[in-house]
Amino acid sequence: MKVAIQGVKGSYHHQVADLLYGEVELLECSTFDQLSRAVAQGDVDKGVMAIGNSIAGSILPNYTLISENGLNITAECYLDIDHQLMALKGQSLDDIVEVQSHPMALLQCKPFFRDYPEIKLVETDDTAAAAYRIQRDGKKGIAAIASSIAATIYDLDIIASDIQEIKNNATRFVVVEKEQEDQQEPNKATINFVSSHEAGSLARILTIFGAQRINLTKIQSIPIVDKPFLFSFVADLEFEALDQFTKARQQIQPYIKELTVLGIYKSATL
Amino acid sequence: MKVAIQGVKGSYHHQVADLLYGEVELLECSTFDQLSRAVAQGDVDKGVMAIGNSIAGSILPNYTLISENGLNITAECYLDIDHQLMALKGQSLDDIVEVQSHPMALLQCKPFFRDYPEIKLVETDDTAAAAYRIQRDGKKGIAAIASSIAATIYDLDIIASDIQEIKNNATRFVVVEKEQEDQQEPNKATINFVSSHEAGSLARILTIFGAQRINLTKIQSIPIVDKPFLFSFVADLEFEALDQFTKARQQIQPYIKELTVLGIYKSATL
Lengths: 270, 270
Prior knowledge:
Chain A is α/β, with parallel strands linked by helices.
């Protein structure tokens, strides 16, 4: 099996792939766009993609990538993101003049560096890539913010642990595939729909979900560019049997303009 | 009048303050947290705060800051964010080895720099602060990504215009104040509520809004940390007369656990 991840070995995406599938062949992608295309073109069997976190909310552009590339969500996984500060063996925090990482990791750890105003924060493409380059180039004085497995893989010392500001930083990842597998007993669906223009259509749609005992676990409106009064919604729905979802999907037809099922899968727990 | 902005003079927040109030005394805040506290403590009359953009969605942590500091949204404003690359007079793109800006601006302009892999992207606290320091220190070889007014204020040359990837990058700002002013003919409200645990309560709430001819222009569910099955919602509601909102607010009582009105104000157009 071949799995596309965002970033290089040692990234949080790698950690999720490892958790779900163990040791597999990895395709390292530098962007979510590249990852989506690799899955759509059949270069890999699956792709692992972050889709949101408990602090900042959804990564909306990734929903667009899934939809535009015709991908299917076939699984989900939650990972607690704990950021580690790592450097060459023997280095300590006092030796560090520059910290490199992905902009999101830098943002999440910014309060930690308030006490170290002389340390320069430099953005890189990827958390694990920053760790990799420190080892490859034997860079003294430079630290990376990355996952604990990146420290192991690239043989670096963790010089400060769990430096992210908010400690409950769970990130939700989804597995995307070209084809929608027939899953055993799925109980969750992710959909993207445009409600019809009539006032109250969203309320009617949610009433139908309620009548089918479908639990709405996420809803987010997305303004449609250039169409100020039209909204697209992303929603996650949980149910006991697929039949509930199938019925609701038929019944909401009068109240929607468009509906894309991004995936039907088994829910995971945090 | 004294207005708190995020960032320094020349920031996009300054641009919004200028648009709304003309020349006023500014309090430059390095974080949204500091800005919120300045408003709550009465150090300023108003604060200008970015609350979301058309690409990435809401800045959820800012809703939390408004709520936790007991602030009121009293106005909104949309600004098209056009990023300019600027450097000391006489410099051209070929001279640049490093570009400094806020991580969000760097992200939005990343595709532009694909053709210049030798340019290092370095994150700073603020777009305009990066521009300011280039002028103050006479830094050759360094460029900043910032607003066009930053180029004017800090006397820099724009060496590449509108370098952001997506051209319709409208950002929504809100004005926050300590007290809820009595506004003339408000037609919009931002609320934060926790629906009661019963299935279908969100559908009932939206049905009530629909019956009062209230238009839902934004809804987003926010997972409540440590309470996996409870959700908080942020919603923007538009109406013609305040009376519609007042009635709906009473009628939804049975279906909500908590409701905070973050503000009642006049809507702005994009």
